Amino acid sequence: MNIKEATFFKEFLRVAEDGYRKGWHERNGGNLSYRIADEEIEAVRECLGPDTEYLPIGNTVPGLAGEYFLVTGTGRYMRNVALDPDHNIAVIRIDEKGEDYSIVWGLVSGGRPTSELPTHLANHELRKKVSGGTNRVIYHAHATNAIALTFVLPMDEKTFTHELWEMATEDPVVFPEGIGVVPWIVPGSKEIADATVELMKKYRVVVWMHHGLFVCGDSFDEAFGLMETVEKAAEICVKVRSMGGKRQTITDPGFRQLAKDFNITLNEDFLDK
């Protein structure tokens, strides 16, 4: 099968295009990665080149040894991913020690995977373990309103989560465990990778202060939908604050009733006892 006809490939392009149209990917901002299933790799293997040249990941991920990923390229624009995938994204293979990667498809004019590759792979390794292997998508975007709130809200996880839960009835249903908060750290570093991994043990979405959102999901729809829901909550919050603030809101008893009726487990640490 031609890799461009594969469902996972088409869905990858759709997320890149949809995220750009949302305004989350100015210039070369944001990145996306997908852990390709074994049967998907076998279906497109004829399109892949040899894994002859390996480069250091910048992190060690033994839990991903031998795995293949579809990733955006560093310095590449999301607006160009669907238009010209050959030059803007790549399939990479992780070596048997989880220390190096090799490009086996894509980036035909040269280049490397996203500068956030160490963070993506570290979190793929974690989420593969905690999800029993079902989690396959990691997505980072510069969601405008979520970034704006990191300048005005107290940046503790309880406050940030509770404020966004209040913005729409669906919010605690979509991210009942809450939102992790990473303080400002230089992007692409091992430090931001380690800080994000620690929070991804508990959350599927974290906010990087003054930078953006970082989410995971079992599917492209799940990851994109999570990003979209958190960003819409942030947009409502920005509008509410611009109109003078809340006069009424959803209460904690209301959240508990919602959790009961929808059969979800809310993070009680973020509610008043």
Mean pLDDT score, rounded? 96
Q: Total number of β-strand segments?
A: 9
- The helix fraction, in percent, is 25-40%
Strand order of the largest sheet: 2-5-4-3-1-6-9-8-7
Q: State the CATH class of the largest domain.
A: Alpha Beta
**Named CATH architecture of the largest domain:** 3-Layer(aba) Sandwich
C-alpha end-to-end distance: 56 Å
- How would you classify the helix and strand content by structural class? alpha+beta
- Proportion of strand residues: 15-25%
What's the story with the biggest beta sheet? 9 strands, mixed
Describe the model:
- There is one protein chain.
- This protein is α+β, with helices and mostly antiparallel strands.
- It folds into two domains: 1-116 and 135-141, Class II aldolase/adducin N-terminal domain (L-fuculose-1-phosphate Aldolase, 3-Layer(aba) Sandwich); 143-273, L-fuculose-1-phosphate Aldolase (3-Layer(aba) Sandwich).
- It has helices spanning 7-21, 38-44, 85-88, 117-130, 144-149, 157-165, 171-174, 190-200, 220-242, 252-262; strands at 31-36, 55-56, 68-72, 89-94, 100-106, 137-141, 180-182, 205-208, 212-217.
- The chain has a nine-stranded mixed sheet with strand order 2-5-4-3-1-6-9-8-7, sandwiched between helices.
- The mean pLDDT is 96.
Task: Set down the secondary structure blueprint.
Layout: H1 7-21, E1 31-36, H2 38-44, E2 55-56, E3 68-72, H3 85-88, E4 89-94, E5 100-106, H4 117-130, E6 137-141, H5 144-149, H6 157-165, H7 171-174, E7 180-182, H8 190-200, E8 205-208, E9 212-217, H9 220-242, H10 252-262
Parallel strand pairs: 7-8
Antiparallel strand pairs: 1-3, 1-6, 2-5, 3-4, 4-5, 6-9, 8-9
Helix pairs in contact: 4-8
